Amino acid sequence: MPRPIRATIDLAAFRHNYALAKRHAGQARAWAVIKANAYGHGLLQCAEAIRDIADGYAMLDLADAALLRKAGLTQPILLLEGAFEAADVSEAARLNLGLAVHQPEQIRMLELARPPAPLDLFLKLNTGMNRLGFRPAEARHLVERLRNTGAARSITLMTHFACADEEAGIADALARFDSGAAGLALPHCVANSAALLRFPAAARESVRPGIMLYGASPMPAMMSAEVLDLRPVMQLESRIIGVQELALGAAVGYGARFVAQQPMRIGVVACGYADGYPRHAPTGTPILIDGVRTRTLGRVSMDMLACDLTGLPQANVGSQAVLWGKGLPADEVAAAAETISYELFCALAGRVPVAWSF
């Protein structure tokens, strides 16, 4: 038999979450962000799940966009990091893709490439993230330059907020963006999941929901996924494959990081950091055993982790262990491990079998 670990992807939940994003977006186009293999959930499967309602898709890789086109998906596709070399421009035109433009070399590519068809271009302005993008004060000059390339079918102004999920919010960044965009009469694309949910005025002409599509909250410290009506899409589950009885003072796992303060019963779950579970998750990280919440114990191993069965006399070898999913939000596990749900989803290892359901 194969190891009992598996991930189940609920595509109906993904569709629900995208429809919720569209409701928040109002009349704005909602780009479904499915980069990084749809945050570990399956690129083609997630794209197909919303084929009939998707306004468009956003991703990074040209090869991923080509897969969607080969699958017959005709919606607009936006490459969020744009072209990496001149040949990408012509290929993007052939596939009818939109390109982000965030640095001077990409403008030079457009000037030299002479693509076979014009492209939808997204000029990225740096409003405080200091990652990608031009200074807002350069916007007018850059728009003119893009128009002069002859490669632009349309131009949208875009930015990415650094603090949409924090108390600081987006006011300062949005003011910088609006200062650069003033008088240009171009559409805007500024809202990620957190901005879309917290600041309705940021919807503008198009939005880019990402993490909310996968059922996690973009700001779990402020609002839970449940409060936001987001449904979990990924469930990672396994089984207990061993049970140990601990005496007072007995230790668990590498480094003896957990020591029993009383006689205990523990379960060993077939899931470890080689499956994508965070190695740094400490004792006390929540886990569900046969639907009942308990805690992990000790250090996570490559293939296994331990959990507390002391108060669960019915649990035994073969009992179901839910690492995250229905009844146990990924946001809670991530918080215990001092990370974010994005990392949990994206870290799912290739050796974990995945099943998609609708």
- The rough form would be described as elongated
Which regions have little confidence, pLDDT < 50, spanning 5+ residues? none
What is the number of helices?
11
Q: In angstroms, what is the radius of gyration?
A: 23 Å
Strand content: 15-25%
Structural class: alpha/beta
Describe how the helices and strands are arranged.
Layout: E1 6-10, H1 11-25, E2 29-33, H2 35-40, H3 43-49, E3 56-59, H4 62-70, E4 77-79, H5 86-94, E5 97-101, H6 104-113, E6 119-124, H7 139-148, E7 152-158, H8 171-181, E8 188-191, H9 193-198, E9 206-207, E10 234-246, E11 251-252, E12 258-259, E13 264-269, E14 286-289, E15 292-297, E16 305-308, E17 320-324, H10 330-336, H11 341-346, E18 354-357
Parallel strand pairs: 1-18, 2-3, 2-9, 3-4, 4-5, 5-6, 6-7, 7-8, 8-9
Antiparallel strand pairs: 1-10, 10-13, 10-17, 11-12, 13-16, 14-15, 14-17, 15-16
Structural overview:
By secondary structure, the chain is of the alpha/beta class. Helix content is 27%, strand content 24%. Strands 2-3-4-5-6-7-8-9 form an eight-stranded parallel β-barrel, surrounded by five helices. Strands 10-13-16-15-14-17 form a six-stranded antiparallel beta barrel. Strands 11-12 form a two-stranded antiparallel ribbon. Strand 3 (56-59), helix 4 and strand 4 (77-79) form a beta-alpha-beta unit. Helix 5 crosses helix 6. The longest helix has 15 residues, at 11-25. The radius of gyration is 23 Å and the shape is elongated.
